[in-house]
């Protein structure tokens, strides 16, 4: 049994055990974006808060929505309710959300001067509301399941900062990458330092595992992925506090669209790699040879299907995960965030089927 900073016994530690490739009684499962708009109770709390950012910045509301999916489903981990874009916001870009349009920034970062003007982040003060949320959620969980902290990768954060919001083509970021690579490197370096400070502060506040979301790493060409994304995630992992109160803090690296780069990812020192649904879990297990745990990778769109078809897809996923006689090193998840259109009852079928069917391999 694992003890936290408040010495509360962690009642369910199978998520941390699987990350560290220790034996587990059943497959741990959580869902990216498990607190979100598909849940009516989330929509109600967001309405009470006024808008999404107020939800993130109010400790009680952020704690409430973090716990909501845990009341409905037998999840094996909680994830801090916040957003990856709080970091650029704290760096002075002015984050806002326009209904139906996704995130936007008042300022963009495109010139040498823009980059030179970015302040040095002090996460404990500049993002104090996130740290308050982490410690409040950790106490409220009372050891029920571990709490995951997270950050965006430098590359993913840079795309939002350079474009000024969401993008499909990454026109200005890629222009900077090919026309003035040294500028982009300066920005990525600043972000890597900021993320190290941010994640270490989350660990100090009580986060028990960390996930780095490299949501747009998959848009990069082969060489550029290593140079502009992976290199900086490696730097972050090297700068993290890897132990707290005698417990290892596992790190999960998730590059969406990164299935072809699993071997180079092994060199980062991550404990686990997240996979999206375009990668074969069975082949990935063969490739990584037990050196890291794997997490994923059900297509979130499968949750639009019938309960029967969800069960079948989960069975096939677990058959792949344990195809080579493994007994651990696997965390079930979706291959990306759950969408707002999913029927909450279907998410329950996903979670329960993981636990039930994994007895075939772990029981
Ligand atoms: O997983 C969780 O439950 C924790 C909460 C979480 C959110 N965002 C809440 C959120 C996490 C881990 C994130 C990470 C995040 N945010 C990423 C990386 C993960 C990924 O999905 O690839 C990215 C790229 C963002 C940036 C971001 N935030 C976008 C593009 C959007 C709009 C997209 C949309 O779904 O509308 C957000 C807003 C956002 N972040 C919402 C939630 C629940 C929806 C906002 C709302 O309530 O209206």
Automatic annotation (TrEMBL):
One of its GO terms (molecular function) is uroporphyrinogen decarboxylase activity. It comes from Acinetobacter brisouii CIP 110357. Pathway: Porphyrin-containing compound metabolism; protoporphyrin-IX biosynthesis; coproporphyrinogen-III from 5-aminolevulinate: step 4/4. Residues 28-37, 148-164 form the Uroporphyrinogen decarboxylase (URO-D) domain. Gene3D superfamilies: 3.20.20.210. Its main location: cytoplasm. The gene is hemE. This is Uroporphyrinogen decarboxylase. It catalyses: uroporphyrinogen III + 4 H(+) = coproporphyrinogen III + 4 CO2. InterPro entries: UROD/MetE-like_sf, Uroporphyrinogen_deCO2ase_HemE, Uroporphyrinogen_deCOase. One of its GO terms (biological process) is protoporphyrinogen IX biosynthetic process from glutamate. Catalyzes the decarboxylation of four acetate groups of uroporphyrinogen-III to yield coproporphyrinogen-III. It comes from the Bacteria. The record marks 83 as: Transition state stabilizer.
